Amino acid sequence: MTSLVWYLFLRPYDYSVSIKSKTFPGTINQSIKLWGNANKNTVLLKQKDFLTIDQQLLFNDSIFQYQWRITPINDSTSKIGVYIKDVDHSLMNKLSIPFSDTNFEKRTKRTILEFNDMLNEHIEKFRVTVVDTLQQLPETYCAYIPLKASQLSKAKGMMQNYPILSTVLVDNNVELNGRPFLEITNWDREVDSISYNFCYPIIKSDSLPQNGIIKYKKFNGFKALKAVYNGNYITSDRAWYALLNYAEKNGIKVSETPVEVFFNNPNIGGNEIEWIAEIYMPLKE
């Protein structure tokens, strides 16, 4: 009797699904939220922590609550538990599910399969390789444009400002001194927003162009964890999460202010899986 009471009235969900995915939790976290954002009838209720996301989905006249629970299994595999509740018909679902294949159950299975297909498709479009030795990112002088954006809009900001930055520097005979890079100055993981500097290494001189947009500074080098990312730079932040996982596993303290060094110009296009970026996560001093 106690078990029946718990099942009917106390269990906080009507149906649960378990998925095993060949990727790390950060990719899953971002994919859940991107999948939800793509569905106009989905609302992010809260992100209790990095591994716990609650959403609300509207299907016709029904409100479903989705509780996502992410559990890392190893460096390359994670488990996703999804706990679903029909807010207005919970008791009826619990009474019906053991005895019939309900519409609620069918819809839930379709929805989870849709998400899983999207996640698997995304995983195929990028690679992250963590380098198993500490690296030293050298100091340099740079021209930069400070920006704020969501993580998803990071690459868009870079693409919009790359022509401004490169054209002004070239037209004014500024000597370039390396590959463009992006320096994260603040990362709010709760709302997936960032402040960052889009930078171009240059040789310092006394006649640098001044236009009110481009700024100049010395970029201080640092010791860091490093990963190599292949794929569209829109999702190069997947490497940030891989480095955080590596740091946690190995007991390394890091600052969540990564630097991305770009080897390709997204404005030119090409096969995205051949794009390269080196991602550095600085060690805490």
From TrEMBL:
- The record places domain GyrI-like small molecule binding at 190-284
Q: Which SUPFAM superfamilies match?
A: Probable bacterial effector-binding domain
* Coiled-coil zones: none
The superkingdom of the source organism is Bacteria
Instruction: Give the matching Pfam families.
Output: GyrI-like
Q: Please identify the protein, giving its name as recorded.
A: AraC family transcriptional regulator
Q: Which organism is it from?
A: Arenibacter arenosicollis
